[in-house]
Amino acid sequence: MKRKNRRKVNPYSDKKSFNIEEFKANSSLITYSKESYHLLKGEELNQISITKDTSVISWLNIYGFQHSQAVRKIIADNNMDEFLINLVIDNNHRNKVIELDDCFFLTLKSPYYSSESNETKFEQMVFVVGETYVWSIQEVEGDHFQHLRERIEKNLGIIRKKGADYLFYLLMEAIIDNYYIAYDKLTEANIGLDNLNETKPTPEFALKVENNKRQLNQIKRMTISIKDAINQLENIDCFEFDIKYFIEIKEQIGLMSDEIDFNLNQLDSTLNLMFSIQNHRLNEVMKTLTIFSVIFIPLTFLAGIYGMNFKNMPELQTEYGYFILLGVMVLVSIVSIIFIKRKKWFS
């Protein structure tokens, strides 16, 4: 979707209280070129001006979606499409791309591992990318991009020789790295499946595995959604963007999706094997109990008959009745064992 209309924005039309100090504490603006680097944060952020000079790149990063008035002011001061206001302050987007007249808007989910709940959670990420700037908003305060800040500041690699498209590509690459970290955390939780002899398929264990599978499937859905968004980005025409960066991002996402598929298939296969082994063990136990039952049930039957308290039982008066009964019991046992061997129940 591409919007060309633009009208003047009142940066202070939002009636909610505007805490400028909170906004400054959660924001930073980096401008750089081949020869220069400048960082504004905290009290230095009195005015946020995004450069239009093609030789200078601006990177504005904000934590949180609660700074609605500040967002309005940034959009108004830099003469951006006012439709961005509704897009940027909403933190409940699905992964999507919207093309505007001189930039594009991208929103996606970035994973992070919560040690408190031992789960992978997702935060909303928003990017507004123009020819000379990248504006990123992170829902959760934390830093996935510190290594990029250091590369820009210390002029490491080629980042300061490239444009906003290369910066956006590196930011996307960092998010994909987060997916790999979350994926590795989930696969680590399945290490117990490597030793099936020591793993017991308890209900708690099965619930844990199903929870990990659910999170892996969630990561897979998110990666597919990002790949669809990148496919949309390939068709934008608001400014020149090197297509090779899109291709590289899609390849990385494709590799991750393939790894997740392989892990899920292997997990299902291992679980099926584990429960098959467990069922085999149970069958062996049941077979042993059945063999003992075949031998001892007839003996119990005989003992039960001659344990009855009837007066008219002639065998009880026989001098050698006791020994005869024991002999019958031994004979029955021998016959039962021969029968079981011929049926190969012992094997």
Write the layout of secondary structure elements.
Elements: E1 2-3, H1 20-25, E2 27-32, E3 37-41, E4 57-63, H2 68-77, H3 83-88, E5 96-100, E6 103-114, E7 119-130, E8 133-138, H4 146-154, H5 164-188, H6 203-233, H7 243-305, H8 321-342
Helix pairs in contact: 5-6, 5-7, 6-7, 7-8
Please give a structural write-up:
The protein has 347 residues and is α+β, with helices and mostly antiparallel strands. It is 50% helix and 16% strand. The chain has eight helices and eight strands. It has an eight-stranded mixed β-sheet with strand order 1-5-6-7-8-4-2-3. Helix 5 (164-188) packs parallel to helix 7 (243-305), helix 6 runs antiparallel to helix 7 (243-305) and helix 7 (243-305) runs antiparallel to helix 8. The radius of gyration is 36 Å and the shape is rod-shaped. The model is unreliable at 1-17 (pLDDT under 50).
List its traits.
347 residues, Beta Polymerase, domain 2, alpha+beta, 2 domains, eight-stranded mixed beta sheet, rod-shaped, disordered N terminus
Please estimate the helix content. Answer: 40-55%
Low-confidence sequence ranges = 1-17
The CATH architecture category of the largest domain equals 2-Layer Sandwich
Element-by-element helix/strand order:
EHEEEHHEEEEHHHHH
User: Mean of the pLDDT scores?
Assistant: 78
Instruction: Give the strand order, joined by hyphens, for the main sheet.
Output: 1-5-6-7-8-4-2-3
Q: How many strands, what sense, and barrel or not for the largest sheet?
A: 8 strands, mixed
Compute the separation of the termini in Å: 71 Å
CATH superfamily of the largest domain: CorA soluble domain-like
Count of helix runs: 8
Principal-axis shape: rod-shaped
Strand content: 15-25%
Enter the CATH topology name of the largest domain: Beta Polymerase, domain 2
